[in-house]
Design brief:
single chain, 7 strands, globular, five-stranded mixed sheet, Glutaredoxin, two-stranded antiparallel sheet
Length: 164
């Protein structure tokens, strides 16, 4: 089960690769300033993940208008994430949880991803969403075992509107 609403969000620093070069992003840099939407996804260059990040990218201004930063988080390396973002025109900042520490801290990782294929992919992030308020407290938590099930963005936007 993902971390519960009301829980202090585990802080983290993750790498991202942008046109300007590598950058470190720290969750707590948003504390006191804005809310944060964390969108965990299994992996870049896959159908449902592409749909999710492209849809969120096209509506990114709505999140900004609700005083929310949005981050996509996966175990892909930052160079693969950057290539995927460029190919698909994804504008959501993508953070690399290459060692799966953040997915583990938020309790949203698979013990075995796609076990039927016997690929030995442990630690892959489940599709999950968390809203962390300006005080660093989780205000919304959703995790899906089915990698094809998108988060409930209507509920996410309603909660962000409340927190604005």
């Amino acid at each position: 089960m993902p971390l519960a609403v009301g829980t202090k969000a585990p802080d983290f620093t993750l790498s991202t690769k942008t046109a300007d070069g590598p950058k470190q992003t720290k969750l707590s840099d948003n504390f006191g300033k804005r809310n944060t939407l964390l969108l965990f996804f299994p992996m870049a260059f896959t159908g449902t993940c592409t749909t999710e990040m492209c849809d969120v990218s096209s509506g990114l201004s709505a999140y900004s208008n609700m005083n929310a930063a949005v981050y996509g988080i996966s175990g892909d390396n930052p160079f693969a994430q950057e290539a995927w973002a460029q190919k698909e025109k994804i504008t959501v900042p993508l953070l690399s949880d290459y060692e799966h520490k953040v997915a583990k801290a938020y309790d949203v990782m698979y013990d075995s991803f796609l076990p039927q294929l016997n690929l030995g992919m442990a630690g892959v992030a489940k599709r999950a969403a968390f809203i962390v308020d300006k005080n660093g407290v989780i205000q919304y938590a959703e995790s899906n075992d089915d990698a094809k099930q998108l988060p409930n963005f209507d509920k996410i936007k309603a909660k962000l509107a409340e927190l604005k």
